[in-house]
Amino acid sequence: MSTRNNSSSKTNETPAITSVKEFLSEESLSRFRFAMSLFLFFAGFGLLLGDPASEGLSDPRWMRVSHVTLICISLFLSFKFEKFKKYSEPVLLFHFAVMSIHSFYLLYVNGLYLGYLFGLILVVFSTGVSINNRRVLIAILLLFIAVAFFVGMHVKDPKIDVGMYYFGLISSGVLSVLVIGFRMKTFETLLEADVQMEKFQINIEEELAIAQKTQKSLVDLEFPEAGNFRIYSYFKPLESVGGDLIKTNLGKEGELDFFFADAAGHGVSAAMVSAMAVMAFKTTAPVAESPSKGLTLIHESLMTMIGGFFITAVYMRLDLEKKALTYSYAGHHPAIIIKSDGSVQELTGKGTVLLALPKLFNRDYEILLESGDRVLLFSDGMFEFYDKEKEFFGNEAFIDLVRDYTSLSGRVFLDSLGEAILGLHSSPPKDDMTMLYLEVL
């Protein structure tokens, strides 16, 4: 009868690529804090200089205290609340407007005093390098220059040359526009790169989805009628695509061929190599005289098409009438036979890896199965990992673990063994976990 085993798998996900837009948002918040720090320096420095009236300057203390308070509140909010970065630019423009009004007032009533001019230039430049919207900045600077000309034309008894005053403010504004132009060009390049990266991610996800579907088709979960045999498979794929495969073929004489293999590596390339190996098996199995001949035919058909990869495999042929199992290895670790008395031993044999050398060197081995015997094939993902004690698990430890579960049979045996292996991992599996299990009734 046909026997089926459900595969264990997780939804495959591709890690999201961090958006450049998010990076630019964080970078914008950093520039906001930089500008606020300069504003704080300018507004707070005057509080440390004593009474400006002693120098003949009009500089109301309450205005500076108010500015320092507002700036400190804005800085605090920028560190306290994540959503503040959405409003950082409008808040910056508000502070720029307040600082500009304050500075123009001080320049007007103090006859274009040089210290206040330097402060206003600092305000203009720090705002210019912190704003992202070039149009908004240009509009604000045009208004700023208009106010600057108005103040320059109406100030009484200027303490510096008015031309120097105009030059200082206009040059700082022009420099701000140049800086934002260069910065925005860089941002646009980064955003374009982000768009291309997102397209690349979408393409990768689509290719992985195709490869994952391909991989699932590589592992048989249903098997043909097998007389006095019951056949099960266990398949827990890695979250990325791997190269494990299990395929069967029922011959004209009633013999049942099994091809259990693992293409080196992970990802789309490994899945594609495995898919080609499956096609080679399906093509050659009907004409293969024996498992070793079958491996040779697969090897020869793939050598002309695949380079840079290799495949480990076990090819088995089961004579359902005689209960004779003939098998051949291609660089794969030995399968296990569990005898009816519960003893566990390896099915000895060796052979060269597929595609590793121009010529394949292997041979056939044969055993007669008895009622109650069980044969287990398994991929290296079942034992090549580090346990919770950070020690390499290994093949011998896996065989010892199998001995603990020989009282179980069928699907329960495979699922229990698989769960036990998963429980021993110190971290999520880094390879496919695949098993093929034959029981003799």
TrEMBL record:
Record-level Gene Ontology MF annotations: phosphatase activity
Protein name: Serine/threonine-protein phosphatase
Organism of origin: Leptospira selangorensis
Keywords attached to this entry: Hydrolase, Membrane, Transmembrane, Transmembrane helix
Residue span(s) of domain PPM-type phosphatase: 226-440
Residues spanning the membrane: 32-50, 62-79, 91-108, 114-131, 136-153, 165-182, 258-281, 301-318
Any Pfam family the entry gives: SpoIIE
